[in-house]
Amino acid sequence: MLAGLQRIAVPFVPEITLATAEQPWELWDASGRDAPPFWAFPWAGGQGLARYVLDKPELVAGRRVLDVASGSGLVAIAAAKSRALTVTATDIDPDALDAIRENAAANGVAIDVAELDLATTDAAKDTQVVLAADVFYQRELAALALSFLEAAARHGAEVVCADPGRAFVPAGRLEPIARYYVPDATTIENVPVKTVTVYRLRERAS
Fold it and tell me: What Rg do the C-alpha atoms of the chain give, in angstroms?
């Protein structure tokens, strides 16, 4: 499934390699699919969150982790490398699920993979940590993602997410806990470096 992609070390997380498209939009054109191949390159938010998880392994070590909208599986792989008890990587795209399996195997980690629509707000009820990167880039998706993350928090999960300054970040519900300057492919974004903020979901006032 990853034929034609190159396995490279992630620029900001060189401990992890991913099958990566040198020209992702050409891959999209060749696929004939409606959805872009979000799984074929490391997004800046995912790089920042993966870096945070590797640098702060106590966040996930010995805990059950759910990574939502996983794409390539980068953040899930970082959680597995940080000794999470279990890691489940999820996406709505079947191609992403295949990419996650192959990327996890290439990095020598065990990850459960499952299809997940963020509208299913009870999916995180048995999870201790929920991770989410790059989920606030569209208005509708941002609202859906926030609803999912808030439901996970109500079930008792610690929620940590990351974003490179998209327009629909729900800043009032998030507490910044780290900031990184992440190199990014100019074939994906229009700048070579993105400022990525890692957030913890704030508790709602009682």
Answer: 16
Residue matched to tokens 């070390």? 9
Q: Which CATH topology does 6-201 take?
A: Rossmann fold (3.40.50)
Count how many residues are written for the chain.
206
Angle, vertex CA 169, rays to CA 163 and CA 171, nearest 5: 110
Q: Give the C-alpha separation, 130 to 70, whole Å.
A: 11
- Pick the more confident residue, 68 or 22: 68
- DSSP per residue, 41-108: S--HHHHHHHHHHHH-GGGTBTSEEEEES-TTSHHHHHHHHTTBSEEEEEES-HHHHHHHHHHHHHTT
Residue 38: predicted pLDDT: 82
> In which element (H, E) is residue 40 found?
none
pTM: 0.92
Question: 97 is written with which tokens?
Answer: 């699920």
Q: How far apart are CA 21 and CA 159, in angstroms?
A: 30
* Site of tokens 């989920």: 135
Domain boundaries, the chain: 6-201
| Tens-digit pLDDT profile for residues 194-203 | 999 999 999 8
3-state class of 3 per DSSP? coil
Is the Cβ–Cβ distance between 193 and 183 less than 8 Å?
A: yes
pLDDT tens string 19-47: 998 765 555 555 555 556 788 889 999 99
